[in-house]
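G., the chain you wanted modeled:
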Amino acid sequence: VFRRIEYLFDGNYRKGKPQPSTGLKKIAKHAVFIATSIFFTNAFLNWFTGPERLLEIITGPISANLLGFFVMLGISLFYYWIYAFFREQVCTMVCPYGRMQGVLIDSKTITVAYDYKRGEPRGPKAKGDCINCNRCVAVCPTGIDIKNGTQLECVNCTACIDECNQVMTSLKRPLNLIRYTSVEGIEKGKSKVLNARTIAYSAVLALLFTALAVVIAKKTDVDTTIQRLPGTLYQQIDATTYSNVYNIKVVNKTAAEKKLTLKLLQPLNGSITITGKQPVVSRHSNVESVIMVKLPKNVLNGKSTSLQIGIFEGENLLETIETNFFGPTP
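Predicted structure as tokens:
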């Protein structure tokens, strides 16, 4: 995206028509850079806030979301610095992808490659198809020479393929001197997509997608945590009843308001008392309450008794949480 913006103001260096912008034109280019960075930052924040909440933040006063504003501004300036100034050095110095790529590929891996069997010996009057014009190097955003083999700086943009094909067309020679292929494909004339490594990677990917599907399937509308009130064990209400006090926090992960009810599921002989009203949780928000659980002495299983509390919306059980009820030692 930033390259296209730069081509608009400065010309396309790949076509040999660079015209570095100056003055107002340069200011306009960087203004578009900043606006684009802000757009991508908001798209990034949308993952965490959701579109409705993001729109509220954008249209609301800055003072109401001061921390969010400075986070957005900081990330936007970081993006702007990377794409306007640091640029390809991210790929060559910072990004771990290239280094990891060197570990994952082998002679059968299909990637951007130069057909050295067809291209060598290179030169304007040599027998190989490569005339050594170095236009593939000129258009490479990271400045590598693909004729030297696969390198960690390669981002697989295929600019070298397009440029080389233009040269081959003008020379009336076969296309794809640089193409997607493997070392084995260059040596033997054919590439296999399926091999032991790609099958293993596909199996791992399938497992990851399966795990993701299971997590999504088990996703609940609310997420509830319960903890005993610090510094408390149990309280004796009367000769036959004991109580425990807990802090409970309910997070609403949906875009709709939730009117919730807490019910004791196990043991059945007992009750829950909530400080204030039953919790009402706004969309993408959370609420904290203090609850008191009362159990008769005859259902206590010694010092610790298992509790199950249901979080209901109407008659719909949204989540079941478990904790322990402390009682007197027998």
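The mean pLDDT is 88.

Shout if anything looks off.
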